[in-house]
Amino acid sequence: MKTAVVNAPFMDGKFSRTSRSPAINKSGTLYWPFWLAHGTGALEKAGHEVLFLDCPAEGITEHDMLQMLLEFNPKLTVIDTSTPSIYSDIRIASMISSSLPDCFILLVGTHVSALPHKCLRLAPRVNAVAIGEYDDTLVDVAEKLDGGGDLSKVPGLCLNLRGELVDTETREMIEDLDSLPFLADVYRKHLKPENYFFAAARFPNVMTITSRGCPYKCSFCVWPQVMHREKYRVRSAEHVAKEFLLFHEYFPRVQEIVIEDDTFSIDSKRVEEISEVLIRDRNRVPWTANVRANLSLEAMRKMKAAGCRLIIVGYESGSQNILNAVSKGTTVSQNMEFAERAKKARLLVHGCFMAGNPGETAYTLEETFQMSLKLAPDTAQFFPIMAYPGTRLYKQYSREGRLRTRNFDRWVTEDGLHNCVVDLPGLSSETLVEWCNEARKRFYLRPEYLLYKIVQTVRHPFTEGRRTMRAFRTFRKHLFKKNKTVHTEDSGK
To answer: Residue 109, by phi and psi: left (phi above 0), alpha (psi -120 to 50) or beta?
Structure first.
């Protein structure tokens, strides 16, 4: 059966829905649509013909997207969503439904999974929402539509039955992740590496997932809570290593593989096992991974030997009270020790810092900045808090009246950049965004940091130097420019 899988255009820019905080990023980063790719692979494995359109990556306009869909004439169209783009996503889904009245329109993603009824009430022409992980849901829906079956028997759906919203039973999580098609195969057929960019990695790069879910309870993290119900599952080391080989075979120009797991290093022993298999297979492609501050030195050294170049860690805050308030499960001292271990293992670090978590004050923000200087990561990200529907943080801030608006298009600025909508006692959303802007300048424009980057570029001109210059060309216009925060009150949209 013909099925279209669509990452729709939004704001005429490189809008990154797959990012944990969807937006047009200051660094020019555009994530690979790996969740949609998994769904596409599942449909193709089941024998369905799929048109996979990543409009932001390809620069496909709404008009061109619609023409391509009309020509393909799918019986099922799957449309990705995110919080800041949701009203546009619903409008585009409705437009497709009007143009293809016999096509079943299915919305997927974090926002509709968190608020399925609210979204369907805004979209009377949309047929259903897939809640949470949707690989098997897409296949089941396609088979029911193809064979005339009863969609109410498909788990994981919220159905719009002529205005009546019906939730089907909860879908079980996929346990055997090795049963999923390789993202490498889907990418080779449908996507182009040069269309994607990840500022922390060498260009061009690819993204993959080696696990789903996370057992930790960070209150702000949307993907584990909304899509995976915090149920942690993993691919085997052999399966991961096989995909590394496929990436190298299919995309010989790719300079790096980015492991975009929520937390690659939940189990240091598993990290060591994957690294050992990569070493055995003589992996030739450098890689980067998201890790946690409890990663052991032994695991770091094996990662380095296996080709790992950089690790990304969520330090979040320099205040232990803040870390406790968001259930991070790490300590400030752990963060410091982690940085020392990474230095011993000769791994670069990209450090992530947040502003606006519960209990934040001007004092704790300065604690965070001072910690960033002591940690001295290769690069740093200072990020205003983004509270997404379905997370414990969103529920907490809603309960406390901290959210300035529930108009979700205000989650980004008019330029598509991240826009904080959280007001804390003594810290307005504008103050939080401005602190991040100033922290970024204070970190990157230090003489010590500039000298470090010059030396790094001279020593490694064709690798680290090229990566730094490419990211800086996009990032520099934001380094000296203030964000345009949106001043708005809740209009009950």
So the answer is: left
- Asked if 382 contacts 443 with a C-beta cutoff of 8 angstroms, the reply is yes
* Structural element, H or E, at residue 222: helix 222-222
| 352-385 residue pLDDT tens | 999 999 999 999 999 999 999 999 999 999 999 9
Per-residue b/e over 273-289, b at no fewer than 16 CB within 10 Å? Answer: bbbebbeeeebebbbbb
Q: What SS3 class is residue 171?
A: coil
What's the pLDDT tens digit per position in 76-109? 999 999 999 999 999 999 999 999 999 999 999 9
2-132+134-167 folds as Rossmann fold (3.40.50)
Nearest to 257 by CA among 214, 293, 203: 203
- The pTM (predicted TM-score) of the whole model is 0.93
Domain spans of the chain, in order of start: 2-132+134-167, 181-479
Encoding tokens for residue 474? 């996009």
Enumerate the β-bridge partners of residue 104: 76
Q: How many helices (H) and strands (E) does the chain have?
A: 19, 15
